[in-house]
Design brief:
single chain; 2 strands; two-stranded antiparallel ribbon; about 450 residues
Amino acid sequence: MPLSVLPGRLRPAPAARGLPDEGGPAGSRAKRPRLHVLDGMRLMAALAVMSFHFIGKPVGYDDTWRETPAQALPTLHRMALYGWTGVELFFLISGFVICMSCWGKRSQDFFVSRVVRLYPAYWISVLLTSAVVLTFRYDFSTVKDITPRTVIVNLTMLQTPVGAPLVDPSYWTLWTELVFYVVFGAVMAGGPTYRRVVAFCGGWTFAAAIAPSVNLPLLTTLTLPDYAPFFTAGITMYLMYRFGPNLLLWGMLGLSWMIALWRLEGTVQMYQMYLPAHSISWSVAATLVTLCFLLVLAAALGLLNRIRWRRLTVAGALTYPLYLLHQEIGTTGIHLLRRWLAPLPTLVVVVVGLLLLAWLVHRLVERPLSGAMKKRLDLAFATLSTADAQAGTQAGVRASTQTGVQAGAQSGVQAGAQSGAQAGAERASAAASPEQAEGGLR
């Protein structure tokens, strides 16, 4: 259903004021313009996570900086303590964007779009990270875990479920994203509709809420109790963006926000272990997470429509490779450069260098390889569809032939039965004819 975009405001068009499911297939609505502000939010989230990894975590980083981050960059260190909340912003945006990317598409199109988006940059990042770690062999890196077996299994992006070490610790979020893609894609295999997406959010929220208490590991794995509220909130905000807000969607969003804040306590405790010298406040973390909700909500409601800087599209394109490359390569760079540079110039050189490396990966690897993979995967699915059509045609011919044979046999049996009955009647008539003739003459 179309939406009318007014300056600074998003409003459902008249055709969308009935049930959002009414009026045809999910993809019957005109394509919405790109939300450039989401690209900017992606980069902001990546930089927040990077700041936490570089200068927010004091454990072990005294060797990285050749002094503690609190000593090297005290002001930035205090600001970066909560940079890990950028992950929560990533998950909110992911729920919004994944729902948008699969709307009106076949399940195979959704699969292809995710594969070509995720793997090309990831493959080169795994190889580059492994090469840097093994070359410089910085002790604080993952050098002790990197073997040929580790690198090979990391290329699948399934290292977490098979129990293999991560080439880069930041890759833990990829498994969380992958589970969301699989669950959402499976439920939406028949094509997303407003009703079906709302049902998914409700069902997944309930399953994620009860998962920790029912002691079923598979349910916990598939429902992501700590992060499901962020994905469902992102999906809900996309429904607001597409169809306009209503009481049901506001209720769903509020429920996701409240559960997210409750689950946040466990995340705060986990990061407290990394920051023993600091007191990580749930209140501060909850405020930042709420701000993340409000930022994505503002974009969904059209309040940020005036932000249309095309440079933000480039920023969004750099975010994924930047996230994949930053931690191990960045900490190794900091460790090496601190021999000659002061802390702040070291940080600036490393961040700029990583942005440049991310741009090179995007331009020279991700874009060309994604395009080539998409063509070949589309061809593979076209071949699969052709094979299915041929199999269906052959099955139809066999069924038609079998039906014809059965009909012919049945017709022959019926004709034979009728002929036999007629012959029997004639013989009976011949046997009775002398008496009948005589009586008739009389």
